[in-house]
Specification:
The chain contains 13 helices and twelve strands. The chain starts with a helix and ends with a strand.
C-alpha cells in the first residue's frame, strides 16, 4: 500500500526536493489512473495540460510516470469495470471527473488516493464538504440556482418558450437530485418542463423526436458523461429541429450551439492540477466548491 507521504511526494515534492536528492532515490514509476467521460482524442486539451503540469513537477510520461487513461465513452455504467481494471494495474492515484466515476471508485477502494473534478453532487460521494474523510478530495461543480438561471436566460432570449424539453440521464444520481430544481424554476417562470431520459447514445435522437411530438419549443441540455460525449449530435439535432437551446458549457457553443451558461470546467480542472499537494496534505481536506463563477457564452 502506498504511504501518504510517498503520494504527497508524487504530487508536489518535486518543488521541495533538490534535484540531486531526487536523483538518488530508487527509480519509481508512478501509475496514475485517469477516469474520464470522453475519449482521449476529445479530451486532448485537458490531457495535454495534465501532462504539462506533471512535467513541471518533475514527472515525465514514459520515464517516471504512466497515465492509465480510461474512458466510459458516455456510459456511466462502465465505470465500475474500468475502476476494477485500474486497480488490477496497481495505480497509485485516481484522477477523475463526474459523480458516477467518483461513486465507482468509492465503492471499490478506501485506500488509493482520489482527486475528483466537476462532481455534480459531492454529498453523494462524501459525508461532509468540510470533512470528507477517507481517501477522496477534489472539486465540486455544484452551484446553487444554476438551472434556474439557465431557464431564465432561455426565456429571455426566446420569450415564446412555453414547453421546454430537458435532456437528462436519470441513471446519474446527481442528475436525479437536480431535476427538482428544474421543475421549481420552470413553474416560477410559467414554463412547463418535461424531461426526456437519455442513458445511451441511441436514446438522443428518439428524445428529440418525442420532444417535437410533445410540442416542446425549446431545449435545456445537461452536463453529463453521455451528453458531453455526444455534444455534436445534440447541437446538430437542436439546429435541425429549430429548438432554441441553452447548454451547460462553452464547448457546446464552440460546437455550434446557441448559448451556454455554467461552470468553467477548464478552470476547475486547472485548479485540481495546481492544488494537489495542498488538498491532500491532511486526510480530511475539504471538498472545494468550484471557485469559477458561472459564465454565459453566445
Amino acid at each position: 500500500m502506498m504511504r501518504r507521504r510517498e503520494f504527497i511526494t508524487l504530487l508536489g515534492g518535486a518543488a521541495a526536493w533538490p534535484l540531486t536528492a531526487r536523483a538518488q532515490q530508487p527509480a519509481k514509476v508512478w501509475r496514475i489512473g485517469m477516469l474520464e467521460t470522453i475519449s482521449s482524442a476529445q479530451n486532448a486539451p485537458q490531457l495535454d495540460a495534465f501532462r504539462q503540469r506533471l512535467q513541471q513537477l518533475g514527472y515525465v510520461e514514459g520515464i517516471n510516470v504512466v497515465i492509465e487513461y480510461r474512458s466510459a465513452e458516455g456510459r456511466g455504467d462502465r465505470f465500475p469495470r474500468l475502476v476494477a481494471e485500474l486497480i488490477q494495474r496497481n495505480v497509485d492515484l485516481f484522477v477523475l471527473r463526474g459523480t458516477p466515476a467518483a461513486l465507482a471508485v468509492k465503492n471499490a477502494t478506501s485506500t488509493i488516493p482520489v482527486v475528483m473534478t466537476a462532481v455534480g453532487d459531492p454529498l453523494l460521494v462524501v459525508a461532509s464538504l468540510s470533512r470528507p474523510g477517507g481517501n477522496l478530495t477534489g472539486f465540486s461543480s455544484f452551484v446553487v440556482d444554476l438551472e434556474a438561471k439557465r431557464l431564465e436566460l432561455l426565456k429571455e432570449i426566446y420569450p415564446q418558450a412555453a414547453r421546454v424539453a430537458a435532456l437528462r440521464n436519470m441513471g446519474n444520481p446527481a442528475v436525479q437530485n437536480n431535476w427538482k430544481e428544474v421543475e421549481i424554476a420552470a413553474q416560477l417562470l410559467g414554463i412547463r418542463a418535461q424531461f426526456f431520459d437519455v442513458r445511451k447514445s441511441e436514446d438522443i435522437s428518439l428524445a428529440f423526436e418525442n420532444a417535437i411530438q410533445n410540442q416542446c419549443n425549446a431545449l435545456l441540455a445537461d452536463q453529463d458523461a453521455l451528453t458531453q460525449a455526444n455534444k455534436e449530435l445534440i447541437v446538430s439535432l437542436a439546429t435541425k429541429h429549430r429548438l432554441p437551446t441553452i447548454y451547460p458549457a462553452r464547448d457546446y457553443v464552440e460546437a455550434g450551439g446557441l448559448m451556454s451558461f455554467g461552470v468553467d470546467f477548464q478552470t476547475c480542472i486547472d485548479a485540481r492540477q495546481s492544488t494537489w499537494t495542498r488538498s491532500l496534505r491532511v486526510p480530511s481536506r475539504p471538498i472545494c466548491q468550484s471557485s469559477s463563477r458561472p459564465s454565459s457564452n453566445l
